[in-house]
Design a protein that fits this description.
The protein is mainly alpha-helical. The protein is built from 32 helices and 2 strands. 37% of the residues are buried.
Length: 567
């Protein structure tokens, strides 16, 4: 057992334990002796000695009682009370320790030691707001205590007082311009408060003064990455790597920046250098395999993942990547085997089940896919995607009601899952329940406000029924901003058409046709808009194109018939 600190000299402790006989006078052999057995301080020493021995023997309750007896005999002895606080800390009774130190402060409000102990105790127990006054009290006595001011700034930041924290750190740097911890804390605080330009300035000052601080270069490079300032990030990482070429974390970051820039060859070069220097770096190998996967170099990615599994067979994410690469290569049997080896208790198991069901469908085994997903649903904690894929399989088999039942089963466990809600809304629309479909689609948007397809669905449905058209326009505009796809632009144009904003409608639908030139409905919409603009000739051309794309479109035939023959 680790002992608490001792404030009494060993010689005094020995005297206390042996009767506490102390010489009087000069200490010559003829001098008279005076017994101090009844002296309160001597008794405090005696009980303190008992405390020490009992504590070392692990007899905590008896040790506590002995120390409290010592305090009883010498109540003004502040050090004894600090010993009691240390004892409580040692036996993990932090609240008791804090109470003891608070009692010291009641007796002696100016005790620097008590303020320090309480400040640190509150700081370390995640009560930063309670540590602040104690740190401030210490700085009143000595404003140049760097660590105390640093702790005060951090406590202020954790309490939501970022502005005050920044001022404290600035004060620290005015007093100690070369303080590495102070400048680094200021840079981090600027970064946390989104004052990126100021953070960059502090990081660069640190690097200029202390170029060997690799951590500073890493943080600055990461900040540039977040801002997608790729060239600046490269410059920082390269300079740091030149100073420390064996710092593999820098090469990892360089590779990530190259991937962000889609410079895959450069990223591979950095990662391969890491593997050459450190063959055991599995993270570098994993990234190499994923880059090959991104480049659709299936054979190379497969080789990397297999080599990793030979080195460490229990890497389930790598086995999952291997299955994915084999699947993309259409090597169905090998992919299926890779996914089967992922254990049922793995976080990746449901993803593996989804892939296996897909492989079964691709190889003409739809019944096996359904059976696999249904078996998974008989066990607890299936993820939403299992319900989704099973519903899609039932829908593909033509059983809308069974698909709907599976989605409702999933929504019972995941009522706010946007994918399950969206698929349910589509099925309700196919079943002819448009009102319920719109209601469900609104739940999708409530769960995921930026769901572009749900916004598009609702906007188009309202345009078709000519209801709530201003709201429909707002939804369509939002959907286009999120996802400017052809079918969504067509919805926007169609809503504008319903609102009588024909010229805006024409522009949106013409852009939709540019993106989806073979969609007969969009050409029909353009014809309707052109008719509203009084341009019968161009409208006829749009209808004829629609009929050319879909000869069975009776609506277009009727419109052309009403137009009659061209003059």
């Amino acid at each position: 057992m680790r002992s608490v600190s001792c404030w009494i000299p060993a010689s005094c402790l020995l005297l206390a334990l042996t009767g506490c006989i102390a010489p009087s006078g000069s200490g010559s052999g003829d001098a008279a002796y005076v017994s101090r057995v009844d002296d309160p301080q001597a008794k405090a020493l005696y009980h303190y000695g008992r405390f020490r021995l009992l504590f070392d023997e692990g007899k905590n309750e008896e040790a506590e009682a002995a120390l409290r007896e010592a305090i009883g005999f010498d109540p003004e002895n502040e050090e004894l009370r600090f010993e009691l606080a240390e004892f409580y800390i040692e036996i993990d009774q932090i609240k008791q320790a804090v109470r003891v130190v608070e009692d010291i402060l009641i007796r002696n409000p100016d005790s620097a030691k008590a303020h320090l102990r309480l400040g640190n105790a509150y700081f370390n127990s995640r009560q930063p707001e309670r540590s602040i006054p104690h740190f401030r009290k210490l700085l009143e006595r000595d404003p140049n205590q760097e660590q105390i001011r640093l702790h005060l700034a951090i406590a202020l930041a954790r309490s939501g007082e970022a502005g005050q924290a920044i001022e404290e750190l600035k004060d620290l740097l005015r007093r100690a311009p070369d303080s590495q911890p102070g400048r680094l804390a200021l840079a981090r605080l600027y970064r946390e408060t989104k004052l990126d330009a100021l953070a960059i300035e502090e990081y660069r000052t640190l690097i200029q003064r202390h170029p060997d601080l690799t951590q500073v270069s890493l943080e600055l490079g990461l900040l540039y990455e977040e801002r997608r300032q790729w060239n600046d990030a490269l410059s920082v990482f390269r300079a740091a790597l030149a100073r420390d070429p064996l710092e593999f974390s820098l090469r990892h970051h360089l590779a990530r920046v190259y991937v962000g820039m889609k410079r895959y060859a450069d990223a591979l070069s950095e990662l391969q250098t890491i593997v050459e220097l450190n063959p055991e770096d599995l993270d570098a190998r994993r990234k190499i395999g994923l880059i090959y996967l991104e480049q659709e170099k299936w054979d190379k990615s497969i080789a990397v993942f297999r080599e990793m599994l030979a080195m460490q067979p229990d890497l389930e994410p790598v086995r999952y990547y291997l299955g994915t690469a084999l699947e993309r290569k259409d090597d169905w049997a090998a992919a299926l085997e890779a996914f089967r080896q992922i254990a049922p208790d793995s976080p990746l198991y449901d993803d593996a089940v989804a892939h296996m069901s897909y492989i079964y469908v691709q190889t003409g085994r739809s019944a096996d896919a359904v059976a696999l997903l249904e078996e998974r649903l008989r066990k607890p904690d299936a993820r939403p995607q299992i319900y989704y894929y099973l519903a899609v399989l039932h829908l593909g088999g033509g059983d809308k009601h069974k698909a709907l039942a599976v989605l409702d089963q999933g929504l019972a466990s995941y009522p706010d899952d946007p994918d399950l809600l969206y698929e349910k809304a589509l099925i309700l629309e196919r079943l002819g329940d448009s009102a319920k479909a719109r209601e469900t689609m609104r739940l999708v948007i409530a769960a995921e406000p930026d769901h572009a397809e749900a916004l598009n669905f609702l906007a188009y449905a309202m345009a078709e029924e000519k209801i709530d058209l201003p709201e429909a326009a707002a939804m369509a505009e939002r959907a286009v901003a999120l996802k400017p796809a052809g079918h969504i632009l067509d919805t926007l144009g169609w809503v504008y058409y319903r609102l009588g904003r024909f010229e805006e409608a024409r522009k949106a639908i013409e852009e939709a046709i540019r993106l989806l030139p073979d969609d007969d409905i969009i050409h029909e919409h353009l014809g309707d808009v052109l008719m509203a603009l009084g341009k019968q000739g161009p409208a006829r051309g749009a209808y004829q194109k629609a009929l050319e794309l879909n000869p069975d479109n009776q609506s277009v035939r009727d419109k052309l018939q009403r137009l009659g023959r061209p003059e």
